[in-house]
Amino acid sequence: RLKMPQLAIPLRVLVAGDDTTDLDSFRAVERMKNRVRVAVLAPESPTELADHAELVLGSTGEFLELLRKL
């Protein structure tokens, strides 16, 4: 009988997105205590991303700068 490997549940998660398809990722981590959801908004980005984000940035350059600081 094969045993399924136990999947590790992350203690912290950072999710970033800039379009409608990323909303599923934002919702998937909704109940996690230690989460940071980053909306990277462009003129064509849905405003709903910002509603689900802890941090809103104005460009991918700003997101890259955030990653460098981490």
What features would you highlight for this structure?
70 residues; alpha/beta; 3 helices; 3 strands
Give a quick rundown of the structure:
With 70 residues, the chain is of the alpha/beta class. The chain has helices spanning 23-28, 48-51, 60-69, and strands at residues 13-17, 35-40, 55-57. The protein is 29% helix and 20% strand.
Written account of the structure:
This protein has helices spanning 23-28, 48-51, 60-69; strands at residues 13-17, 35-40, 55-57. The chain has 70 residues and is of the alpha/beta class. The radius of gyration is 15 Å and the shape is elongated.
Compile the SSE list and pairings.
Blueprint: E1 13-17, H1 23-28, E2 35-40, H2 48-51, E3 55-57, H3 60-69
Parallel strand pairs: 1-2, 2-3
Order of helices and strands: EHEHEH
Computed CA radius of gyration, to the nearest angstrom: 15 Å
Name the shape in a single word: elongated
Strand order of the largest sheet: 1-2-3
User: DSSP helix count?
Assistant: 3
* Relative helix content: 25-40%
Biggest sheet overview: 3 strands, parallel
Strand content range: 15-25%
In the predicted model, the low-confidence regions spanning at least 5 consecutive residues are none
Structural class: alpha/beta
N-C termini distance = 43 Å
How many beta strands in the DSSP annotation? 3
The average pLDDT score comes to 89
